[in-house]
Amino acid sequence: MSGNKKEILSWSLYDFANSTFTTLIVTFIYATYFTKVIALDEISGTALWSRAVTIAAFSVALLSPFLGALADQGGYRKHFLFFFTAVCVIASAMLYFPVKGEVLFALFWFAVGNIAFEMGGVFYNAFLPEIASEKNIGRVSGYGWGLGYIGGLLAMFVAMIGFVNPEVPWFGLSKETGQNIRATNLLVACWFSLFSIPIFIFVKDKSKPGKVKVMESVKATFTQLKYTFVELKKYRETMKFLVARLVYNDGLVTVFAFGGIYAAGTFKFTFQEIMIFGIILNVAAGLGALAMGFLDDYLGGKKTIIVSLLGLITAAAIAVLTTNKSMFWLAGILVGIFAGPNQSASRSLMGRFTPSSKQNEFFGFFAFSGKFTVFLGPLILGILTSAFNSQRAGMSVVIAFFLIGGMLLLAVNDKEGIKVANGEA
Fold it and tell me: For residue 154, with 0-12 CB atoms within 10 Å meaning exposed, 13-18 middle and 19 or more buried, which class applies?
């Protein structure tokens, strides 16, 4: 395998590794277990889970621009990636221990793991413009998302046959105490650890190692951030895109954080049904991300995102309005098909808008745009759920985020943004 192909595969395997955290913990298994077992009841559990998602998102919004700029200053990209990967692995393993009633214990480690997961993504995404060219960046980003969904699918399958479904779970784990469900967090920790190894061995960090001390890098970082904020008017299309993503990503994060909770609470899905639901969604999402990665290179990132948002609006409307379980399954499949391309095309468009000297910093702002107001989705969902005593009322907020984000995206001139990033304007 050529060096570049090996780097692309190793980079993509990190998506394969870390997707287990979002699939098993954030969306399908642990989120549902928390609301049904650890919390007092599903309504209060949903509201508390939304608070933890909010705290994690706000923390990432504060940290990502600074640490992204610091990585550019000191060449710390791979160091930060390793640190946050290790923290997420440890937090995932710790989620095995909380039992019924230990709400704060569970929420603390979930929030720590979620922050580490998202921060790791800042530095992982920053490698994309280095390992891909302008011609194939959409496909390479799609490979990552596609392998990510495949990783989530396989991990869900292992969890289902080994821990959730069998009469006697692997390793003699107790079903009465929920030990078999909690053990899926240990599966996440092991999976993430194993498949993240290639990126640290085979992907070269082309950012220059820091020749200055850490404190000097910190001072230079504050100077660089101040300069970047002043200079942002030069990158008008990038900023317009980040504002649009700031909105539509709120809807997507809310769907991921509460999809399993909504299925269990509103449509009375069992753990087994949620597992099957998750597997089907991951199959749809993986195929969507891989297929539309080629569409991204053909149509461009902006048009691909708009197509995906139309699909997501349709899916969300069906999920909120229907009382038919079969129609909810259809909505879930549509979410799977269009969520992957939305994330993949957003990442590739940001890669096209990123100057080569500011990769970590710009992807820090990319993470910032994905998290700065992301607390609004879970927060409003929690408020509406409590106010109307209905998860359906809470979930309706995602439709508004997709609609407003799509309208803002229409104002972005992607050709102009690419020219400015390449120094042609």
Answer: middle
Question: Are 154 and 286 within 8 A, CB to CB?
Answer: no
CB neighbourhood size of 208 (10 A)? 10
In the 8-state DSSP scheme, what is residue 115? H
Output the six-digit token pair for 129.
Answer: 């413009």
Q: Which among 194, 238, 203, 160 has a CA at the least distance from the CA of 419?
A: 238
Nearest to 114 by CA among 91, 80, 147: 91
3-state secondary structure of 179: helix
Look at the block and give the residue holding tokens 């979620």.
Answer: 114
CA distance 177 to 354: 50
Query: Max alpha carbon distance in the chain (Å)?
Result: 65
Residues whose CB is less than 8 angstroms from the CB of residue 415 and which lie 6 or more positions away in sequence, other chains included: none
- 354 is written with which tokens? 């990123």
Taken in order 312, 314, 319, 324, the sign of the CA dihedral is negative
| Residue whose entry in the numeric block shows the structure tokens 């991921």 | 256
pLDDT tens per residue across all 425 residues of the chain: 445 888 989 999 999 999 999 889 987 789 889 988 999 888 888 888 888 888 887 888 778 777 776 666 656 788 889 999 999 999 999 999 999 999 999 999 999 999 999 899 888 887 887 887 767 777 787 788 778 878 888 898 898 888 887 888 888 888 878 889 899 999 999 999 999 999 999 988 776 555 545 555 566 656 666 666 666 667 788 888 888 988 898 888 788 777 777 887 788 888 778 778 877 877 787 777 767 667 777 777 888 899 999 999 999 999 989 989 889 999 988 988 898 788 878 878 888 887 776 666 676 667 666 666 666 777 788 788 888 888 888 888 889 999 999 999 999 988 888 888 777 55
Cα–Cα distance for residue pair 285/334, rounded to 1 Å: 9
Residues 6+ apart with CB under 8 A from 190: none
For residues 290 and 91, give the distance between their C-alpha atoms in angstroms, rounded to a whole number. 30
pTM: 0.72
Distance CA(106)–CA(381), nearest Å, equals 20
CB atoms within 10 A of CB 425: 12
